[in-house]
Design a protein that fits this description.
Number of helices: 18
Enzyme class: isomerase
Number of domains: 4
Strand content: 15-25%
Mean pLDDT: 80
Structural class: alpha/beta
Shape: globular
Keywords: Disulfide bond, Endoplasmic reticulum, Glycoprotein, Isomerase, Membrane, Redox-active center, Signal, Transmembrane, Transmembrane helix
Subcellular location: Endoplasmic reticulum membrane
Number of strands: 16
Low-confidence stretches: 1-11, 20-37, 401-442
Bound molecules: 2-acetamido-2-deoxy-beta-D-glucopyranose
Catalytic activity: Catalyzes the rearrangement of -S-S- bonds in proteins
CATH superfamily of the largest domain: Glutaredoxin
Main location: endoplasmic reticulum
Largest sheet: 6 strands, mixed
CATH topology of the largest domain: Glutaredoxin
Radius of gyration: 26 Å
Strand order of the largest sheet: 11-13-12-14-15-16
């Protein structure tokens, strides 16, 4: 492990471009400033990119801002980037398949960033992951302060124990998602009553839940199940993460810009169910609502009119839709139970046919959105190869044998490449596209 890491380090040393505060990006040869940085510490957040990746270009300014802000904050984390098309061995070492991929390196560990690609979210992630795995809450005031700033925190209460070791291990894995604290009994809010110490609690939904070794299984999978609020606004990034959750996702998909009476009712029903039936459904369902149906449409390759209620199995990209209208909480309960007992019709999935269909759907929507965004440019991009082909055929037919090579090479090779390069830039400007791509690689 350490030898391997040493080799990687040495390789990285010569290839990482440092994004520094004054917006200099050193080219990916040995960069002296960087070498110094690198040797003095092992904290890095790296972007693995490819020059042809359109989204990487759009993302570039954000990445620079991250670099500048971390530097001005005095963060020990260095920001860099690696061209994976040049350094293919590093890309395969880290199994990089989507672009841009963001990873944080902390000593021998690496952590994947899977959240939204915004400056604030990346900086929050960097500070959380690069800091201590367990953060002590040493006073009542500090406890209150932390609670008021986070929707969800895990807290270990007690002294050293076997449970604490387990907690530390789980925290190392899940710190990419949330914060882990330790506290003594004295600093807990008055409302918290413990049967046993040591204990692990999750504070969320304006209350707290305690881990029970006998009912909840091992600590790590309990943390995985509890790391989201019971009901919240789910975006495409958190939905994507729910593939690892082994829970079904019950969603009210609504249009927040034009909230109808029905969408308010769907949201209320979901929220009520998530609290009143928590014990019943906590290991089967994650509840939430989503604003806009774009992502779901892509997932189910169809269009459902908002608002609607849907249950998703993110592990297999499967879904169920209610067969009749949902008016009451009983209707919703009946629907959720029918999904659990298998009587509801499961649609979608990730079989061969679904895969093929998904690729077609994606290609179609890409082309459509491209023509919508830039009709003239698209005509040019799609027209150019055809034009060139016609030219080549014409040139081949009319050329005298001695001139054969020239027109073919000169006319085809480079323009076609250019057209593709440009085409890629226009193609995927939105993050939804990216997520579904990122999803495919896993
Ligand atoms: C999702 O579907 C797969 C295959 O049918 C099944 O094995 C798995 O249990 C489902 N996931 C959940 C959370 O029900």
């Amino acid at each position: 492990m350490s030898l391997r890491f040493f080799l990687i380090n040495t390789a990285l040393l010569s290839v990482i471009a440092v994004v520094s505060g004054n917006y200099n990006v050193c080219s990916f040869m040995l960069c002296d400033v960087f070498a110094l940085y690198f040797l003095s510490c092992h904290f890095f957040i790296l972007q693995f990119y490819a020059p042809w990746c359109a989204y990487c270009h759009t993302f570039e300014p954000t990445w620079h801002e991250v670099g500048a802000e971390l530097k001005s904050m005095g963060s020990p984390v260095n920001v860099g980037k690696i061209d994976t098309t040049v350094h293919t061995s590093i890309a395969s070492e880290f199994n990089i398949r989507g672009y841009p991929t963001i990873k944080l390196f902390k000593g021998e560990l690496s952590f994947d960033y899977k959240g939204p690609r915004t400056k604030d979210a990346i900086i929050e992630f960097t500070n959380r992951v690069s800091g201590p795995v367990l953060r002590p809450l040493s006073s009542v005031q500090l406890f209150q302060h932390v609670m008021s700033h986070h929707d969800l925190i895990f807290v270990y209460i007690g002294r050293e124990s076997f449970l604490k070791k387990e907690y530390y291990k789980a925290a190392t894995e899940y710190i990419v998602h949330t914060y882990f604290f330790t506290a003594s009994e004295e600093v807990l809010p008055k409302a918290v009553t413990l049967q046993d110490v040591p204990a692990v609690a999750v504070f969320k939904d304006r209350t707290y839940y305690l881990y029970n070794e006998f009912l909840d299984g091992d600590l790590s999978s309990w943390i995985n199940r509890e790391r989201f609020p019971s009901y919240f606004q789910i975006d495409s990034f958190s939905l994507y993460q729910m593939g690892e959750l082994s829970k079904l996702v019950a969603l009210a998909v609504v249009d927040e810009k034009n909230p109808s009476e029905e969408s308010v009712r769907y949201k209320t029903l979901m929220e009520t169910l998530s609290t009143e039936y928590r014990d019943h459904y906590k290991s089967d369902y994650q509840f939430g609502f989503m604003d806009g149906n774009e992502y779901i449409n892509g997932l189910i390759m169809g269009e459902v009119e908002m608002p609607f209620i849907i249950v998703l199995n993110m592990t297999i990209d499967g879904y169920c839709l209610p067969e009749s209208k949902i008016e009451t909480i009983e209707d919703l309960l009946r629907f959720l139970n029918s999904v659990l007992d298998g009587s509801a019709k499961l649609l979608g999935g990730n079989g061969f046919l679904q895969h093929a269909k998904r690729s077609l759907y994606k290609a179609k929507s890409t082309v459509v959105s491209m023509f919508q965004a830039a009709p003239f440019f698209s005509c040019f991009v799609f027209g150019l190869p055809v034009g060139i082909a016609v030219l080549v055929i014409w040139a081949t037919c009319t050329a005298v044998p001695a001139d054969d090579e020239k027109p073919v090479e000169g006319a085809t090779a480079s323009p076609v490449l250019d057209a593709h390069g440009k085409k890629a830039i226009e193609l995927q400007p939105d993050s939804t596209e990216k997520t579904s791509e990122a999803k495919k690689e896993d």
